[in-house]
Design goal:
CATH class of one domain: Alpha Beta
Largest sheet: 6 strands, parallel
Distance between the termini: 23 Å
Number of helices: 9
Order of helices and strands: HEHHEHEHEHEHEHEEEEH
CATH superfamily of one domain: Enolase-like C-terminal domain
CATH architecture of one domain: Alpha-Beta Barrel
Helix content: 25-40%
Structural class: alpha/beta
Radius of gyration: 19 Å
Strand content: 5-15%
Strand order of the largest sheet: 1-2-3-4-5-6
Oligomer: single chain
CATH topology of one domain: TIM Barrel
Length: 294
C-alpha cells in the first residue's frame, strides 16, 4: 500500500494480506520510480512468481498482470537512479516472465507493469527480451506520462517494440487520449475514477473503438469503482480486461451491500439492480474507518 507520493502506507490489514515484504531499504523510499532504493529477496524469484500465477489461474482468472520493475539479484543503485539496467538484470526479468508463461500456458494472457521507470534504450531492450513470451502488453516502461505528458517519447518507444505498449492511467480527458492516437500506443487504460467518471470514460471508449484500439481500464478501486469500470467496459466495443487490484485486501467484498462476491472465477457479473448494483455498507465502513462519514 502507498500514498499519493508513492511512499509506503502502514495499514493494519496489510498483515493479513499475501503481499511482497522487505523490498524497500527504508520506510521513506518511494515504492515506484528511479528513487526507490531496494533489495532483492525470495519474493522476486521466478519460482515465487510462477506459484502465484498458477494460483490465480486456478481461481479462474484468464489474464494476469504483475509488476516487473522489481529488484533482481544484480541490482545496482547507480543504474536504477538513471533508469538503466544491466543485461543480467534484463535476463533475470525475462526469466520471471518465462516462468509465469510456463506455469499458466498459452490460454492465459500475461501483462507486465514497469511503472514509468526505465530510460528509452533500456525499455526497448526489455521489450525485445520479452518478445518470445507473447505478452498482451507492456505497461508504462518509460516516464512519458507519469505526470507531465511526453507523447513524442512514446512514439520513439513504440517504433522499436513489437509488443503492444499500454498507458493512460494518468490521462484525464478524451482530448488527451485523442493526442495519444499518433504515438503507436495500442492499449488504452484510463482510470475513470480519475478521468471524469463513466461519461468521460464512454467518450474515451468510443474514440478507442473508432481506431480499433484496445480499451482495458486501469482500476485500483474498491468494489464501487470496480463495478463502475465493469459497466463502462460492457459497452466498449474494443474492451479487453478490467484491472482488479484488491485480491488480497481482506475486507474488499465485505464493505458493500447486498453481500455478494463481486468477482467469481475471474468474471464480474453485472445485475439489473439500480445504479452500479451495490452500495457501501456504512456500518462496515465505520468498522475499518472510525471517522468514516458521507
Amino acid at each position: 500500500a502507498m500514498n499519493a507520493l508513492h511512499l509506503p502506507a502502514k495499514l493494519p490489514w496489510i498483515k493479513e494480506a499475501e503481499v511482497e515484504r522487505g523490498r524497500l531499504l527504508t520506510d521513506n523510499n518511494p515504492i515506484h520510480g528511479r528513487l526507490s532504493i531496494e533489495r532483492w529477496n525470495e519474493d522476486y524469484t521466478p519460482e515465487a512468481y510462477s506459484k502465484r500465477a498458477l494460483k490465480m489461474k486456478n481461481e479462474g482468472f484468464t489474464a494476469m498482470k504483475f509488476d516487473l520493475d522489481v529488484p533482481t539479484p544484480y541490482v545496482d543503485i547507480r543504474r536504477i537512479m538513471s533508469g538503466d539496467l544491466s543485461l543480467k538484470d534484463i535476463d533475470y526479468m525475462a526469466s520471471i516472465v518465462r516462468a509465469v508463461r510456463e506455469a499458466v500456458g498459452d490460454e492465459v494472457e500475461i501483462m507486465v507493469d514497469l511503472h514509468w521507470r526505465y530510460n528509452l534504450n533500456t525499455a526497448i531492450r526489455i521489450c525485445k527480451a520479452l518478445d518470445p513470451y507473447r505478452l498482451r502488453w507492456i505497461e508504462d516502461p518509460i516516464p512519458a506520462i507519469m505526470s507531465v505528458s511526453n507523447f513524442d517519447e512514446l512514439k520513439l518507444l513504440t517504433s522499436q517494440c513489437s509488443t503492444p505498449i499500454e498507458t493512460g492511467e494518468n490521462l484525464y480527458t478524451v482530448v488527451q487520449f485523442k493526442d495519444l492516437l499518433n504515438t503507436g500506443v495500442r492499449v488504452w487504460a484510463p482510470d475513470i475514477v480519475k478521468a471524469g467518471g463513466i461519461t468521460e470514460g464512454r467518450r474515451i471508449a468510443e474514440l478507442a473503438s473508432m481506431y480499433d484500439i484496445e480499451f482495458s481500464p486501469h482500476n485500483i478501486s474498491s468494489p464501487i469503482g470496480t463495478l463502475a469500470h465493469a459497466h463502462l467496459a460492457s459497452i466498449a466495443n474494443t474492451f479487453g480486461f478490467v484491472e482488479f487490484h484488491g485480491h488480497d485486501v481482506p475486507f474488499w467484498n465485505e464493505i458493500v451491500k447486498p453481500k455478494r462476491r463481486i468477482i467469481e472465477n475471474g468474471i464480474i457479473k453485472l445485475t439489473d439492480d439500480p445504479g452500479l448494483g451495490v452500495d457501501l455498507d456504512d456500518q462496515i465502513m465505520k468498522k475499518y474507518w472510525e471517522d468514516y462519514d458521507l
